[in-house]
Amino acid sequence: MKHMKSYAPYLFAAFVAILSLNAGCHEELKKTEEVNLGFDPANAKFQPDPLPKGVSPAAVTYRDANCYISGEFFCIVSIVDNKSYDWVRIWNRIQVLDSAGNVLTVNGDSSFILRAFADAVPPSGASAFFCNIPLKQISGVPDTCHFEGAGVLFQEPGPILVASESGGGVRIQRPDPKDPTKVQELAFNSQATIENPLPDTAEVFRLVYLVYGEIDRKLYFAQVIDPVASAGAMHQERTGPLIAGDKRRVFYPIVYEYLPQPLKDQRVGRADVQVYEVRKEK
């Protein structure tokens, strides 16, 4: 019981945040969209990222990659691993294929560029990316994807931030209003511990949430969350920079309303977390 008591204030606060997120109308939620993990179907236009000049060849691999249709969108998500000995910012080249393996065009192009979330990925480190493309922007019926490293820009070394004890969470449920004999899950309250084990301070940082399905255990969604902009929903043991040796628990409610359809259908199985330092563009 002592363990549960230590978490109780955070779980209660997260539950209140979930209730407030679900109490307003859709237009009101849009005003604080940074707080909500998920994408807005009203975003009907996909724009790829530009590939900057002067990039070097990328030594990267991909894992937990998944491509699928959710409503009127083709969603693409993956973790990307840095296999080089350098700190890098990563750009990925993506091709969309149909079930026969034919390359489809997106906005008339046979491939497009998508940058990984992290501003600087350390050697043997990882980042992730996600996009949702309206089906009307694709030349056929998409089925799978092909990834390759488009290029990297070298970055200065910095804090190596770690997310440990991630993946678990508490399910926020209520009786289904349409059928009291069933349970409706409103949100998955993610729990993680983030830490900075090295001497350098991370003045500004971001968290990346990687959301997996409960049944097939596939990765379906990834998104960057700003802990300052999302302070109304995210709860940390401490706020501010991650100083040397800092270790803090973080709680964040993942509300189903904003998630891709496969996660609504099978529920969230786990939510892993990545954390990285924000760097200024050069």
Describe it for me?
The protein is 12% helix and 43% strand. It has 282 residues and is mostly beta strands. The radius of gyration is 19 Å and the shape is flat. The chain has two domains: 2-38 and 159-277, no CATH class; 60-154, Immunoglobulin-like. The chain has helices spanning 2-23, 26-30, 261-266; strands at 60-70, 73-82, 88-97, 103-104, 112-115, 126-134, 144-154, 162-164, 169-176, 179-195, 205-213, 219-225, 235-236, 247-255, 268-277. Strand 1 (60-70) and strand 2 (73-82) form a beta hairpin.
Number of domains: 2
- Main beta sheet: 5 strands, antiparallel
Question: How many individual β-strands?
Answer: 15
- The structure class reads mainly beta
Task: Tell the overall outline.
Answer: flat
Short description:
With 282 residues, the chain is mainly beta. It is built from three helices and 15 strands.
Topology:
Elements: H1 2-23, H2 26-30, E1 60-70, E2 73-82, E3 88-97, E4 103-104, E5 112-115, E6 126-134, E7 144-154, E8 162-164, E9 169-176, E10 179-195, E11 205-213, E12 219-225, E13 235-236, E14 247-255, H3 261-266, E15 268-277
Antiparallel strand pairs: 1-2, 2-6, 3-4, 3-5, 3-7, 8-10, 9-10, 10-14, 11-12, 11-15, 13-14
